[in-house]
UniProtKB/TrEMBL annotation:
Record protein name field: M64 family metallopeptidase
Taxonomic lineage: Bacteria, Pseudomonadati, Bacteroidota, Flavobacteriia, Flavobacteriales
Keywords: Signal
Leader peptide range in chain numbering: 1-18
Domain spans labelled Secretion system C-terminal sorting: 396-468
Gene3D superfamilies: Collagenase (Catalytic Domain)
InterPro entries to which the protein is assigned, alphabetical: MetalloPept_cat_dom_sf (IPR024079), Peptidase_M64_IgA (IPR019026), Secre_tail (IPR026444)
């Protein structure tokens, strides 16, 4: 059996083995710390690859003119891989069951293309997909995976641009769209699914319905996932409207979002979800100096520098502390004098978080904090400097709460985080410690109703504060 499996594997590998293709950068914001979008050409002959680059550039420009991609454009790179096809366009088999064929007087046509893009996939005229159905697509999907592994293994999201003016597109691991007017919106909708975990805001069917950023069965305004946006920008708790399956059990945040109709923008809840994912994938800290160094007393002042990936407008807040005391705010460069240091070990920390209005942190479960800490040891008259970078994803839920509040920390370090729950008159009510990747439950049932502050510390350095509402 092992011998037969090996023969089958080798035959399959030969079938999907990929060539090396030309790669052209479309938008470069930085190195591989960015989110890498890769556009594959489909239905472009060798002589049409310049047109593909023009189409890919136009697509990129349109995407990054839309919020929230516009504000976070510096977090993305875009590359185009020139994959030539023997013929132009895509298949039109005329086999759709959702329209009367021939639809729009389109003739039945077949094109010899690299990924075998075809309309009428799964019986739907506008469903433009690699292959006519899921079973046939398995080999093509393997072909795409092999091509990417060979040509651009560090991609975060790949998509396929089809040389066709007829409306169509599809989602899945590798979203596909035509090059016409709505093609960019089709792709934005689809990567809303594949890269940012958003759900359709038209009912997607019982199989795809699930609790998500923008889909829930919860109707309590205090508990619904997007409670932080309720009654702002027309965000509400809207029931899905249809008569199929369990449709009436599910709710969405908006009635005019691109996740429902591609002629709309992203709603506030979906924008926030996209930004949250960007923060998970990319730290705003690009580089910093020094990373380590040994200096003598003649080297003062010691200069410390941050290079950040800035949103536009820049909404990154930077708070510097030296030995836990405030040192500077919202600057990327600080200088430390010899007189600023204590004898022995000193700690300089900068805490970075994003204060964009596109995220409403109060009442929101998760927030992200990033730090760089330099340890400066001048015990022997020399300044030995070492550095450490940390990313923190902090969750506090449910909020508001009657009885129990859960705290969860995900961090790139093993540091213990201290949390103080403080009344508005400044009294510390509770102090807890959170370990990395563990959920810590806190009983707040004995607290009076009202608003409290939760302050978060690592190594005695304050890094964040958030409101807690006791019901």
């Amino acid at each position: 059996m092992k011998y037969i499996f090996l023969i089958v594997f080798l035959i399959s590998f030969q079938h999907v083995s990929a060539q090396i293709f030309d790669i052209e950068p479309i938008k470069i914001s930085g190195d591989d710390k960015r989110i890498n979008l890769v556009i594959l050409s489909e239905g472009y002959q060798e002589s049409e690859l310049d047109k593909f680059i023009t189409d890919a550039t136009n697509f990129t420009n349109k995407v990054f003119n839309e919020s929230p991609f516009k504000e976070y454009a510096n977090y993305f790179n875009v590359y185009a891989i020139k994959v030539p096809s023997d013929e132009s366009g895509a298949d039109h088999p005329g086999t759709a069951t959702n329209v009367t064929e021939p639809y729009n007087n389109l003739a039945t046509t077949y094109a010899d293309t690299y990924f075998n893009a075809t309309y009428d996939s799964f019986g739907t005229h506008w469903l433009l997909y690699y292959e006519i159905d899921g079973n046939s697509a398995n080999n093509t999907k393997a072909k795409i995976n092999t091509l990417l592994a060979t040509n651009f293994p560090s991609y975060d999201q790949a998509l396929i641009l089809v040389n066709s003016s007829e409306y169509g597109g599809s989602g899945g691991d590798f979203p596909m769209a035509y090059t016409g007017y709505w093609g960019t919106n089709v792709i934005m909708h689809e990567i809303g699914h594949s890269l940012f975990n958003l759900k359709d805001e038209y009912y997607p069917g019982d199989i795809l319905a699930a609790e998500a950023i923008n889909m829930t069965k919860e109707t309590d305004p205090n508990l619904v996932r997007w409670k932080n946006w309720l009654n702002y920008n027309n965000v509400g708790i809207y029931q899905y409207t249809c008569s199929t399956g369990s449709c009436n059990e599910w709710y969405k945040p908006h009635q005019n979002c691109i996740m429902e109709s591609i002629d709309k923008p992203f709603c506030s809840v979906c924008k926030e979800g996209i930004i949250e994912k960007i923060h998970e994938l990319v730290s705003p800290i690009d580089t910093f100096t020094p990373t380590s160094n040994t200096l003598d007393n003649s080297s003062f002042p010691i200069n410390f520098h941050l290079e950040l990936i800035e949103p536009n407008p820049n909404t990154l807040k930077r708070n510097w502390t030296l030995n836990t005391l405030d040192f500077a705010t919202d600057v990327d460069d600080v200088s430390v004098l010899e007189t600023d240091l204590n004898s022995g070990v000193n700690t300089l920390t900068v805490v970075i978080n994003d204060e964009t209005s596109l995220i409403r942190v109060d009442n929101h479960d998760t927030f992200h904090v990033y730090t760089v800490t330099w340890t400066i040891d001048n015990t022997l008259g020399f300044e030995d400097i070492t550095s450490k970078i940390n990313n923190y994803n902090i969750s506090m839920f449910p909020n508001p709460s009657n009885n129990i509040v859960n705290f969860k920390l995900e961090s790139t370090s093993d540091a213990i985080m201290k949390v103080d729950i403080i009344s508005l008159d400044g009294k510390i009510i509770k102090t807890i410690s959170i370990s990395n990747y563990q959920t810590h439950q806190v009983d707040v049932s004995n607290l009076s109703q009202g608003i409290y502050l939760t302050n978060f510390y690592t190594n005695n350095t304050f890094i964040a504060s958030k409101k807690l509402v006791k019901k």
